Amino acid sequence: MEWLISLAIGVLTASGVYLTLRAYTFPVVMGLTLLAYAVNIFLFSMGRLTVGLPAVIDKTAEVAQYSDPLPQALVLTAIVIAFGMTAFLIVLALKARGELGNDHVDGLDVESESHSNKGVK
Amino acid sequence: MVFAGETLIQGWTWIPAIGLEFAFRLDGLALLFALLILVIGLLIIIYARYYLSKKDSMGRFFAYLLMFMGSMLGIVLSENLIQMVVFWELTSLTSFLLISYWQHRQDARAGARMALIITGGGGLALLAGVLLLGHVVGSYNLTDVLAAGDLIRGHDLYIPILVLVLLGVFTKSAQFPFHFWLPHAMAAPTPVSAYLHSATMVKAGIFLLARFFPVLSGTPEWTWFVGGAGLITLLIGAYTALFQHDIKGLLAYSTISHLGLITLLFGFGTQLAAVAAIFHIINHATFKASLFMVAGIIDHETGTRDMRRINGLLKYMPHTAVLAMIAAAAMAGVPLLNGFLSKEMFFDQALTASNASVWAWAIPILVIIAAVFSVAYSLRFIHDVFFNGEPVDLPKTPHEPPRFMKIPVDLLVVICLAVGIIPMFTVAPILAVAVAGTLQTTPPEYSLAIWHGFNFPLLMSFVALVLGILVYVMRKRLFEWHESGVAHWDARIIFNALLGALGTFASRVTRSFDKGSLQNASVWVIATALLAGFIGFTSVSAPLFGDRELLPVDGVSVLAIAILMIASVLTVVWHQKRLIALVILGVVGLIISLMFVKFSAPDLALTQLSVEIVTVILLLLALYFLPQTTPNETSDLRVSRDIVIALLSGVGVTLLTMAVLTRDFVPISEFFLLNSVPGGGGTNVVNVILVDFRGTDTLGEIAVLALAGLGIYAMLQGMKLHAPDKDSGGRLWNSDLHPEIMQTLTRLLLPLMLMIAIYIFLRGHNLPGGGFIAGLIASVALIVQYLSNGIAWTNDRLKFDMHWVIGFGLLIATTTGLVAMGLGYPFMTTAFTYLNWPVVGKFEVASAIAFDLGVFLVVVGATVMSLVELGKLSNQSHLSKNIEKSKAQLKSQQEAN
Fold first, then answer.
1. CB atoms near residue B60 (< 10 Å)
2. B685, B780, B783, B869: best mutation site toward chain A, by most A Cβ within 10 Å?
3. A12 and B568: CB-CB below 8 Å?
4. Mutate to test the interface with B, among A9, A77, A81, A113 (most CBs of B within 10 A)
5. Looking at residues B103-121, what average pLDDT do you find?
6. Of A10, A75, A88, the CB nearest to B651
7. Which chain B residue has its CA at the smallest distance from A68's CA?
């Protein structure tokens, strides 16, 4: 199971890194989202993988082991913050398109003058 | 108490781990400087009120001035050295603001920048020196440092400490070779010059010399560095001052020269020399501040500061003229004035020092030369301005200034006279405590009398006066000689060249890494991470994997993770078809939430699920305005390079995760598990950590979220984006009206969804749920309304301004923390109790739930605001009148495709 999770994180990271290195804003935002997934699972797995353990304290019975709550708390906020960041980035990308007329990450659409329906000023 | 020889110290711990205390100290030296700062500061404030014109912002000026005054007081009253350096840098910053007060003037901005660079740079050197000093002594407290003089002088680090501290001193007090910033700082309003550049800021360096005198002085290095810089500065300043045509320029160089004189006295290193130095600090502050104020009056009343045009002002402003004459005479060292007394002491010390070595006989001679020029420029100030014929072509007809501009000068001149005539009854007590505070021992015997009989110092004064008058009489030829050569030397040219070269160098270095391209920068970041990882993997000898028992694999997990990986890869493969890629990205997110379910993390599963929905909606909204496809990359090389980088990252992360997961560890969550119920009153430990144990972190996180929401709102203000009319298949871009079935259904569902949100919120402390998740669910409920019914319809019915929701959320969360503080507990302490409600039964109330409510509101506010603002944008573009233009674009797009 550990191998499966590690591979999943690796694939997510590789996909995320590749997309992050693209030249247009939308793939970059998707890439960062994938990277955020990878990071979140990675952080979560630092509490080791546990199957079928209770996550909530049982006051009535003595329970030997619970799932590790600390990585969960950290990842929970990380998920929400990642959303905030994605939202900010995508709006930044829209703003760049509005101001510059293209959606290249450097604002210079040299590679595909003909493609994009630009010139929206 | 200070006069009785006590040192008052008051301190509070600040960061004890690094020896930082918030501590103040009042001894004789600090008292003297505090008096100078406060008394002259008061006079300057009165003066400036009448100096500034109606156009100038009085509030801004006094704000800066008082800020400066506070920082200056901080320097002289600090007990902790690091704290002193902080105040030191504050004076650099506030003096920057004051010098550039007339921001529209280019010379003011340039002068302020130069002053900031030089004094700020010196401040950094001083910080390094102080850190070394604290390292040697083992304490940053002045009391300990002052007691450790022998230790420091004998230490290997003595020379570095001395050089670094002196760099701070010389830059601040305009000593050679850093003296050139002071004349350029004269672009400041005159009250600023009078305050900063005569009595306070430039004296900060001198103060430091006095402060560290018992610790650092008494070595040959001290004498050479301090004495040498002082002597050169004294001569250069005195010589250059004579040739200035600007009144303030003359005073600036004269200040440099007098600062050099004081530095030289400290450089002599004897106790009597220190007495003379401190005496001259007082005297210089009084006569120079008054002279600067006179220069300001003249500038104010005549409209110019050029001494070639200002002549014969005696008959226009006799009162001011008398004041100026007395102050200038004090500066020249004429008997019966305060300048004379300290100058006599100075000559005496120069003579004593001449016995020190073979070459030291030159000191008294050089000192006399400086004194000659000092007499000459003082004479020039008086003769050129108040006599010497009639004014030439003045912009205004001069007359006496308002009374309150003269009163501060009156007072200072009276002090000059009083100190000069009856020193024992005026300056003696404060001088005595200041000297005791400086030397940290019993002061030596010294006499403040006016008359010491016929002796060498008196003769030197006399020679200086006579020769000075002679030099002034012969000034025509000297001026010609000066103009032909020396006048063109200006350190500013070197400074600007150095600054320019530094800028070019810096931008070249930056350019070689950052080519202004995000792709390039990302490659750097990722490649560096890869390299760091590679070094990490290869540099340890331990086996890559540990021997922890692995979990068994089951079929469903394999299937789910296979889907996850395939979806992830497909997102990449199809990333050029953006809509499809986005849909597959959603699949990835959903599988991840299933994964959280599997691995016993119900809170995370709920969060991931709701965030996934919101993210996909958000990206879909954005896609409305972006091209639907991504063009091909031009360079195959780049694609293959990126594939290699991506694969390497993937392999690295996989190995890293595996390396961790195969090892056992001791979790630190034991504490949270044990204390969650008794301490936090909740059984859902994740939620208790969020709202209680780590509440302050969560507060920071919701603040980030709130800022992201507000940032999105701000960015979208006034933005106009136009979506195309039709897609590439020729279908209408925006044809569907809101479908009725969905409308009806969602309206019915709204109360139910909100109910669920509230339920999830309330149970959060004990069962999976809480503010974050409930907030996201409520957001989804609201966003669905917007989606199905349209923004206008929903806004009519939902009259919350999301700004307020975010604001209230933050307010509630912060207040919960502050209430605990108000009750005497640390910030964010929570309390809980059990209530017996009639129907519900025993019910637990924790103050953390109020905090969670804040979290809930911020999440709802930020999420809904982001999406609705984006949605509004599409509404506007839909109504856009630019259809013609869009059609033209559509045509060109179709051709391209």
1. 12
2. B685
3. yes
4. A77
5. 90
6. A10
7. B669
Asked whether residue B615 is assigned to any structural domain, the reply reads no
pLDDT at B669: 79
- Counting the structural domains of chain A, the total is 1
In chain B, which residue's Cα lies nearest the Cα of A74? B690
Q: Model pTM?
A: 0.66
Q: Does the structure show a pLDDT above 70 at A111? A: no
Give residue A74's domain range: 2-50+66-100
Distance (Å, rounded) from C-alpha B499 to C-alpha B569? 51
Domain range for B280: 217-489
CB contact under 8 A, B709 and A37: no
Closest CA to B855 of B613, B612, B679, B692: B692
Residue A83 vs residues A90, B162, B180: alpha-carbon distances, Å: 11, 54, 54
How far is B778 from B762, CA to CA, in rounded Å?
13
Q: How many CB atoms are located within 10 Å of the residue A58 CB? A: 10
- Contact state of A75 with B604 under an 8 Å Cβ cutoff: yes
Residue A13: pLDDT band (50, 70, 90) is very high
Give yes or no: residues B147 and B28 share one domain.
yes
> Taking CB atoms and an 8 Å cut-off, how many pairs form between chains A and B?
319
Q: ipTM value of the model?
A: 0.88
Looking at residue A4, what DSSP letter applies?
H
Reply yes or no on whether the pLDDT at B784 is more than 80. yes
Which of B523, B525, B571 best probes binding to A when mutated, by most A CB atoms within 10 angstroms? Answer: B571
More confident residue, B789 or B36: B36
C-alpha to C-alpha distance for B529 and A92, rounded to whole angstroms: 26
Closest to B202 (Cα-Cα) out of B110, B99, B298, B127: B99
CB pair distance less than 8 Å for A22 and B575? yes
Distance CA A67, CA B669 (A): 10
- Contacts (Cβ under 8 Å, ≥6 apart) of B44: B65, B191, B194, B195, B289, B293, B408
List, for residues B241-275, the tens digit of each pLDDT value.
888 888 899 999 999 999 999 999 999 888 889 99
Contact B649, A14 (CB under 8 A): yes
- A-chain residues near B686 (CB < 8 A): 55, 69, 72-73, 76
Which chain A residue's Cα is nearest to B604? Answer: A76
pLDDT band at residue B881, thresholds of 50, 70 and 90? very low
Mean pLDDT of chain B: 85
Residue A119 falls inside a structural domain: no
Q: Which helix (H) or strand (E) holds A116?
A: none
E strand segments, B92-236: none
Based on the fold, state whether residues B168 and B221 are members of the same structural domain: no
**CA distances from residue B616 to B28, B582, B708, B745 in whole angstroms, order as listed:** 70, 7, 17, 21
B845's enclosing H/E stretch is strand B841-846
Position B536 confidence tier, pLDDT thresholds 50, 70, 90: confident
Q: Can you tell me the mean pLDDT for B441-465? A: 80
The model's pLDDT over B707-749, given as tens digits with 9 standing for 90+, comes to: 998 998 888 887 777 666 666 666 666 656 677 888 888 888 8
Residue B775 contacts residue B856 (beta carbons within 8 Å): yes
Residues B730 and B877 in one domain: yes
Q: Do A40 and B519 touch (CB under 8 A)?
A: no
Q: Do A45 and B660 make contact, defined as CB atoms within 8 angstroms?
A: yes
Dihedral class, residue B303 (left if φ above 0, else alpha if ψ from -120 to 50, else beta): left
The answer for residues whose C-beta is within 8 angstroms of residue B843's C-beta and 6 or more apart is B834, B835, B836, B837
Number of structural domains (chain B) is: 3
**What residue type is assigned to position B126 of the chain?**
L
Residue A115 has pLDDT above 60, yes or no: no
**What is the mean pLDDT of the segment spanning B613-633?**
84
Single-letter residue type at B852: D
Cα separation of B84 and B75, whole Å?
A: 5
